[in-house]
Amino acid sequence: MPVVESSREVPVPPAVAFAVSQTTGATRLRWDRFIRRQVLLDGATAAAKDVRTLTVHRAGFRMVSRYVSYRPPTSVGMAMESGPWFFERLGGGWRFAEVPGDPGRTLATWRYNFGCRPAWLAPLAERVGSLVLGREIERRLAGFVRGCADPEVLTAVGEDPSAVGAEQ
Question: Whole-angstrom distance between the N-terminal and C-terminal Cα of the chain?
């Protein structure tokens, strides 16, 4: 099963990075250009383990996923329940770790694994998918880095934008 992973440092502590990663609505769209829309399902009002979400990709692909882990401020994991026809399975995890020696910075690591269908096409589709998904994750993570420095996003998660990076 192919695995795609990318990491970047962001100028906020892990708790803030985690909070930014879980934003929704207009705040989420300020930094996450990967999605057109994302909503919690089944009456959920906040993310938590076993909560399901509907995510609509900017190209219109729809996916229902479930939080398989939710451990603020260090990690979150999801698994696809239903989605685009070409994914047999898709899972992802986002980790947030303090940069050693710098409690005001976080190393954000996003890792996805997937399998493609139909089986006869999977070997080629998974090679191409690794390149495409890898590029998408890099772009999405770059947006996350911008979001962790965006005063409106930081204010939305209860962080004082003027304090970001002040410890450095």
Answer: 40
pLDDT tens over the chain, length 168 residues? 899 999 999 999 999 999 999 999 999 999 999 999 999 999 999 999 999 999 999 999 999 999 999 999 999 999 999 999 999 999 999 999 999 999 999 999 999 999 999 999 999 999 999 999 999 999 999 999 999 999 999 999 998 777 666 544
- Beta bridge mates, 82: 64
- Cα separation, 120 vs 122, in Å, equals 6
CATH superfamily of this structure's domain 3-163: START domain (3.30.530.20)
Rg (CA), the chain: 16
| Cβ atoms of 96 and 115 closer than 8 Å | no
Domain ranges across the chain: 3-163
Which of 79, 93, 74, 86 minimizes the C-alpha distance to 121? 86
Nearest to 144 by CA among 31, 57, 34: 31
d(CA 73, CA 13): 9
